[in-house]
């Protein structure tokens, strides 16, 4: 299965939800008028796109309807697709790993798919011929390290770990030294995500970031926040909480195979100017792809 098919299959639920709402709007279709535009706007808002972003999309659509004299259903849909894609393309989705070594710090709340995504990304980079080291900086539970180790073995990458309860920043420090010694291309750091212990968690992240900046001042750094697409609007609150502490430069959107709420990504990208860099569409090692706005929009509408 190619990426597009996988994503399309993965987005079925999102698509159904989007589709249902679109179908509802278009089932009474008579002509392209203000009423239709308002109903489309409401459908976008209901699909977790966000109020501000939905309003913007429809304002642009309204302009085009006027200018291009759009009159039929297919043309409205196609213009809508293009307007959503435009928003997703306002940010740079490319992964910047320009130095050797480069570093990827993965953050996000518990259960969103950080560890799984790290395994998938490590596997991808490895297949691209890169030497990857993984740091087990979620030291809170031994099981977290074990889980990461399984993924590291699958991707055939070295893992750097310490015993349960160790200082996460020290694990990252160790991992950086090993990455340098081994002349590895990319270091990927897993982190904990206990948001209920917010102050502690955020302090931990600040400390990790300090170690990285001190030990690898010249390195390309990607701080990627993982979001579970099935959480809908809650994802917006998570981004807010993490943004206060770390400069996030991209998102990994997981579980697009299990969501009816993938629309949330459009709002998050637009309102935070944060690009999506990867999407997860399953639990297997190959179920992750580089985000492609064209495919995303086509699969959605
Ligand atoms: P973490 O707590 O953020 O490290 O999350 P994990 O990586 O442990 O993942 C939590 C659960 O989500 C696991 O059961 C994963 O298999 C599952 N998961 C992660 N990514 C995806 C995905 O893209 N699709 C699906 N269906 N499940 C996923
Ligand atoms: Mg984890």
Q: Which terms summarize this structure?
A:
binds magnesium ion; binds guanosine-5'-diphosphate; alpha/beta
Low-confidence stretches: none
Strand line-up of the largest beta sheet: 3-2-4-1-5-6-7-8
How is the main sheet built?
8 strands, mixed
Bound heterogens, unique: guanosine-5'-diphosphate, magnesium ion
What percentage of residues falls in helices of 4 or more residues? 40-55%
The rough form would be described as: elongated
Helix vs. strand class = alpha/beta
Give a written overview of the molecule.
- The mean pLDDT is 90.
- The two termini are 20 Å apart.
- With 301 residues, the protein is of the alpha/beta class.
- Helix 11 (264-272) links the parallel strand 6 and strand 7 (276-280).
- The chain is built from twelve helices and eight strands.
- The structure holds guanosine-5'-diphosphate (GDP) and magnesium ion.
- Residues 108, 110-116, 193, 226, 254-255, 257-258, 280-283, 287 line the site of guanosine-5'-diphosphate.
